[in-house]
Design brief:
globular, mainly alpha, single chain, Hypothetical protein af1432
Length: 160
């Protein structure tokens, strides 16, 4: 277990997302966690439950430390959302949750994951527009959200 924890920490601290060079998985996960926390509070979750949502959101891409990150546009292009890949990712995510979340948080991860999915979409679209403005982002029309107007300089590739 210790070896996999070291691998996970190294992965999130050094791996960049969206096939780019500007934002790490750790920074993206923190951005998603902050957006999810704010959404949970807006939906009148208790502070304790909003912090649980934050913790769950920090782990939302944790499986990628073990199976790699395939950028969303590529998944769409080659039809990678196959049942086999989806099941593999879910099983790895479940194992990570078993190790790092308590019973209440695991239950929340099952029931309140839509908050985190929405936060992830907003973060992904925001990052694409902010960090890769010259790239063909036409695939974003498939993402039903708009970027959030934030100063994202705090989440660029500083090593965490």
């Amino acid at each position: 277990m210790k070896k996999s924890q070291e691998h996970f920490r190294e992965f999130i601290a050094t791996t960049v997302i969206q096939g780019g060079q500007k934002i790490t998985v750790a920074a993206h996960s923190i951005f998603v966690a902050e957006l999810a926390f704010l959404e949970a509070r807006k939906l009148q979750f208790t502070v304790e439950d909003a912090w649980s949502i934050y913790k769950i959101a920090l782990l939302h891409d944790a499986a990628e430390a073990f199976i790699g990150d395939i950028p969303t546009p590529l998944k769409i292009l080659i039809g990678m959302n196959t049942p086999v890949l989806v099941d593999l990712e879910k099983n790895i995510q479940k194992a990570i949750h078993e190790q790092l979340l308590d019973d209440h948080e695991r239950n929340m991860a099952k029931n309140d994951f839509d908050i985190i999915k929405r936060a992830d979409r907003v973060a992904y679209v925001t990052e694409a527009v902010e960090f890769f403005p010259k790239r063909d982002n036409s695939w974003l029309v498939q993402e039903p959200t708009n970027p959030v107007p934030l100063d994202l300089s705090i989440i660029t590739t500083r090593r965490l």
